[in-house]
Each structure stands twice: as structure tokens, then as C-alpha cells.
Amino acid sequence: MSLFKRYEGEPVESESVEQRILPFLLKGRNDSVVYYEQMVDAGVALAWLERTNAERAPNERFTFFHVALGAIARAMSLRPKMNRFVIDGQIYQRKWLDISFMVKKERRDDAATSAVKVRFSSEDTLEDMARKARAAIQRGRSKEHTSSEREMALGLRLPRLALKAVVAGVRLLDSLNLMPRKMIEADELYATMFLAFLDGLNLEAPFHHLYEWGTISIFGSVGQVERRALVNARGEVEVRQVFPVRWTFDERVTDGFYAGRTMELFQKIMLDPQVLEQRSAFPASFQPSGSATEGRHGANGQEPEPVSSPPPKSVGIAGSEVG
């Protein structure tokens, strides 16, 4: 354990010995990576958006991005072990829920992109989360450079050997928990997860690697909404609007069973998005299946009929960085 306290995290000592030894056996995030694929029903959320937005001003309407982002943030807040990271062999519980994503300044191939980071609270409603996301997107599309962009531009002015020495020095400070607070707050790679939202960009969602810089332990790629023929609980084939989500996570922070239940919770929220209008951080009806406190119905009092979807896949594909 480091002699110094870490600004954004508390050391985890209560985990099993098997979990706590993993950071010493698997040194890097990409040595410890697990890939998980979901096919998520989008029809309920899209129908809810149409009804809800009919009563809202055009500039205050929710988007599918807001709902998916809100469902992910709520699931992560309800499942705190997913909000962990590993530094120098130590597992830390993060103090805040930060989600980073890329913003394209213009819809052109040659247009610049900017990374932004948004801090969410477990008590945020969809209204709160959408407001924060809009502000972050506006900030990312502005002509003004972010703090991390200015730092990177300054570093690139140095000779290569000098820049390598600076990066090595910062990594050392990070491993000793001496990283300056301002750098942690400004750097988008010091966050809970990185999200690539590709719906509307005509791009397939990739399995993305994890970054060895920073503290991000999860990468999520949200693909395009499409129509697919699926089999419902009665064995009938029906066409549903679905979208793929491809997750990459560091198994050193928690076990695969816990991570899989968290992804299941995300699916349940997408099937009942109006729960995001509630401020309750722990609605009993949205505990993952297998929990003793799980309820049978969502906030609307009905449980959507399940459909079969492709089983999770454990595959590795080198993904390009998009946002």
C-alpha cells in the first residue's frame, strides 16, 4: 500500500484474497481484459421518448443518447464495485462516478474531436443527466481547448526524449498517489468509464482496448439501433428494435459474475426508462436477477416480455477510437 492517500479513491481491503492478488499476477489493464457483448431492446425506450418529448420544448427534449447514458450511469451507481480501478497493485474504490466520451466538433471525417468528462450523482434524474451531457457536448464543440488538450500541446513541444521522461515522471507520481489533483480532474482518462456512442454515425460498435494511462476500468461501445428478428418467451419470432453494446472491462476490479449482473441491470433500466425520472438511488425493483431483494416489475408496474438474444461473446477485436 502507498504511503500517501489517493485523491479520487479509497483502497479496497475487504475483497477476497483471490481478487486482491490478481493485480500482482496481471500487471496491466489489457492483460486483464474481458469482452462482453449485449443486444439490448431499444423499442420501449424509443416509444417512451416519443411520448415524453411530445410535451417538451424542442431544446429540452431527451435523446436516445441521454437515455442510454442515464441507464449506464444509474447501473454503475447501483453497482459500486464496477466503479473501481487498479494502481500499482492496489484496488481502489472511486469516490465519484465520472463518464468520459468523445465529441465530434463537426460531422466530417476530417473534423477534430474532443474528449469530455461528466460527473454524475446516484441521485441524478434523467433531467439532471441530460443537462450535464448537453453542457459537456457544448463544451467539447467549442473552439476553446480543454485543460488536457493544452497540457498535451505543451508536452508535444518538447523533444521526444524529454517528453518520454516527463511521461515516465508523471506515471511514477501516479503510482505513488502523488498525482496533482488538477491533473486528475482535468484528464478525461481518469474516470469510471469511457463511452463511445455510435448510433447515427453509421459505424459498427467495436470491442475497444482499455487505456494504460489513467484509471478507466471499463470501455463501452454503443452501436446503432436496428431491426432484428428475435424469439420471444412464447417461442414466436418477432421483429424488435435493438442495439448492440460491446463492453471491455478490467477483471481485476471485480469478478465477471458481478460485472455480468451489472450489464443485466442496464438492460432492465432500458426496458423501463421512466425509472430514471426518480431520484431514488436504489429502487428495489431494479436489483439484478438473483438478488434477494429483486422485484418482478419496473416503475410502470409491468415486466416487458423477454426475447432471446445472442449469448455473450468473449472475443478480442482491436477497436478504433471514435465518439
In short:
This protein is of the alpha+beta class and 323 residues long. It has helices at residues 17-25, 43-53, 64-78, 126-141, 147-155, 160-175, 181-186, 256-270; strands at residues 9-11, 33-41, 84-87, 90-94, 97-104, 113-120, 193-197, 218-222, 226-231, 237-250. Helix 3 packs across helix 8.
What does this structure look like?
The protein is globular. A hairpin with a 5-residue loop joins strand 9 and strand 10. The strands form 2 sheets. Strands 2, 5, 6, 7, 8, 9 and 10 form a 7-stranded mixed beta sheet that branches. Strands 1-4-3 form a 3-stranded antiparallel beta sheet, with no helix packed on it. Helix 3 (64-78) crosses helix 4 and helix 3 (64-78) crosses helix 8. 30% of the residues lie in helices and 21% in strands. The chain is an alpha+beta fold and 323 residues long.
